[in-house]
């Protein structure tokens, strides 16, 4: 009997909509306010430049997605190109970034809805959204693709009304004089690093590439089309927004685009755009849950994570265990209700992923020149090199606290990889040796204390005796634990 496997049932339209909807998050329109406080009116060219910078890496995604059309996205690319720990580390950060992005999308939905309903509980609302779309993803990519396509089409139509109506309003009013407050080049770079996550649609396509029909044609077309649509859309929305409301006012709003819509189109416009952005938050949450589950599935399939994570549901043909596990961790982060910190965390993870994807293109061009590539990155090697340089530069402007978190998560990844790859038997022997060593050390200290070779002058004799017996007891426990670890047999 054949094992259940992922189905290729996403066509070009659904795949493109997955790429657009995967990054057309409500949170992306919420963070525009903070970005405006960093860059002022320069936010308009910054949004456009971020799209062009990301397009360099989109070409690399398209090449690798057609050459290696397997589930896992950046992780699979890095595994094929480098293998071992680099592949695992890429998958680790890809999963974490998707998890943060899922939480961010759900939180963004809650903040947008709060513009009309200020009394709602934002963390609780975000958690409910994650649970609902985890269930949707459990039922399969056919349902997921259909829901995502419909949602994304509705959002694009509503944002189109906002751009057209806002442009007409700008043309009919006298433009406000630009703010005279200096922004500075550092603020511009910080805003660029902050807004870089606006263009992550290709990652959603790459993560689900094992479920795309005719991948040699549909994957590169969907990636490029989604990138072009997003560049045009985000640039137009931001241009209209700062044309109606000055950046310093925009930065003070919890839902900046809804506030702009209310100024230009009245209360009905605010309601319409709030509905549109809320739906966008649902679409992004849907796509991000799908993406993160495919990363867990792929890493489990390759033995880096427990095998249970790559189980496929017999009826729905989806990695149901990976979806549930990812949803549990996402709920924890969504319950915090934070925005800015999560944005930088998302950016850091995807910047690492973007760098690895570009490096993988260069590596595979050298070690596998005969690999079938239905699509090749144009202007190679300039485009992948430009993607690497842009990613490395933007890291310099990520919040230091997020960089520290990234370093800590990298250390955790190293421990997980070591424990998983070394195996239970060797890990047990290592812990047995450590226990014996600690037992001997505590026994030696107890001996020195008992023979008065060392004297605790700052405490009484009774306390010194108590310390002696505690050290003796701990040494016995450590020695016994070490012996049991060394002589125990594997089951």
Question: What's the structural blueprint in terms of helices and strands?
Answer:
Blueprint: H1 12-21, H2 26-30, H3 32-39, H4 43-67, H5 74-81, H6 84-113, H7 122-138, H8 141-171, H9 185-195, H10 201-207, H11 215-244, H12 247-250, H13 256-265, H14 267-301, H15 320-334, H16 340-367, H17 382-395, H18 400-422, H19 424-450, H20 461-487
Helix pairs in contact: 1-8, 1-10, 1-11, 3-9, 4-9, 4-11, 4-16, 4-17, 5-6, 5-16, 6-7, 6-14, 6-15, 6-16, 6-18, 7-14, 7-15, 8-11, 8-13, 8-14, 10-11, 10-14, 13-14, 14-15, 16-17, 16-18, 19-20
CATH topology of the largest domain: the name is: Amino acid/polyamine transporter I
Percent of sequence in beta strands: under 5%
Helix-residue proportion: over 70%
Which of globular, elongated, flat, extended, rod-shaped describes the shape?
globular
CATH uppermost class of the largest domain: Mainly Alpha
Query: What is the CATH superfamily of the largest domain?
Result: Amino acid/polyamine transporter I
Poorly predicted regions are none
Gap between N and C termini, in Å? 29 Å
Structural class: mainly alpha
Rounded radius of gyration (Å): 26 Å
Number of structural domains: 2
Number of distinct helices? 20
Q: Please, what is the average pLDDT?
A: 80
| Secondary structure: number of strands | 0
Largest sheet: none
CATH architecture level-2 label of the largest domain: Up-down Bundle
Order of helices and strands: HHHHHHHHHHHHHHHHHHHH
């Amino acid at each position: 009997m054949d094992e259940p496997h992922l189905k290729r049932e996403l066509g070009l339209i659904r795949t493109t909509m997955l790429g657009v909807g995967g990054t057309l998050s409500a949170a992306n329109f919420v963070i525009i306010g903070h970005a405006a406080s960093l860059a002022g009116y320069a936010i308009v060219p910054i949004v456009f430049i971020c799209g062009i910078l990301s397009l360099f890496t989109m070409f690399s995604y398209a090449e690798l997605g057609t050459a290696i059309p397997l589930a896992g996205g950046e992780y699979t690319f890095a595994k094929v190109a480098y293998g071992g720990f680099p592949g695992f580390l890429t998958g680790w950060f890809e999963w974490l970034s998707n998890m943060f992005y899922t939480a961010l999308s759900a939180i963004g939905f809650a903040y947008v809805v709060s513009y009309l309903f200020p009394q709602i509980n934002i963390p609780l609302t975000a958690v409910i959204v994650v649970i609902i779309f985890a269930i949707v993803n459990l039922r399969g990519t056919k349902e997921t693709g259909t829901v995502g396509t419909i949602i994304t089409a509705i959002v694009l139509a509503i944002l189109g009304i906002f751009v057209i109506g806002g442009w007409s309003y700008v043309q009919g009013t006298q433009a406000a004089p630009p703010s005279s407050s200096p922004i500075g080049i550092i603020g511009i770079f910080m805003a660029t690093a902050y807004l870089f996550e606006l263009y992550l649609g290709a990652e959603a396509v790459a993560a689900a590439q094992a479920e795309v029909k005719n991948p040699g044609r549909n994957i590169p077309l969907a990636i490029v089309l989604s990138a072009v649509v997003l560049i045009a859309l985000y640039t137009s929305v931001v241009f209209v927004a700062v044309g109606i409301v000055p950046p310093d006012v925009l930065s003070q709003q919890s839902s900046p685009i809804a506030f702009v819509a209310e100024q230009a189109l009245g209360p009905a416009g605010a309601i319409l755009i709030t509905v549109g952005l809320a739906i966008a938050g649902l679409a992004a949450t849907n796509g991000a849950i799908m993406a993160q589950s495919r990363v867990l599935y792929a890493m489990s399939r390759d033995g880096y994570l427990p095998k249970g994570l790559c189980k496929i549901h017999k009826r729905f043909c989806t990695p149901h265990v990976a979806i549930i596990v990812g949803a549990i961790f996402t709920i924890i982060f969504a319950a915090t209700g934070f925005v800015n910190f999560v944005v930088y965390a998302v950016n850091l993870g995807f910047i690492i992923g973007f760098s690895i994807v570009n490096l993988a293109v260069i590596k595979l061009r050298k070690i596998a020149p005969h690999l079938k590539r239905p699509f090749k990155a144009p202007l190679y090697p300039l485009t992948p090199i430009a993607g690497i340089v842009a990613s490395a530069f933007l890291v310099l402007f990520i919040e230091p606290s997020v960089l520290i978190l990234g370093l800590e998560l990298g250390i955790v990844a190293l421990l997980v990889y070591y424990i998983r790859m070394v195996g239970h038997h060797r890990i047990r022997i290592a812990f047995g040796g450590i226990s014996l060593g600690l037992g001997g050390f505590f026994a030696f200290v107890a001996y020195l204390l008992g023979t008065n070779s060392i004297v605790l002058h700052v405490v009484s004799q009774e306390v010194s005796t108590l310390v002696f017996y505690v050290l003796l007891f701990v040494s016995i426990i450590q020695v016994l634990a070490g012996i049991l670890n060394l002589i125990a047999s594997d089951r």
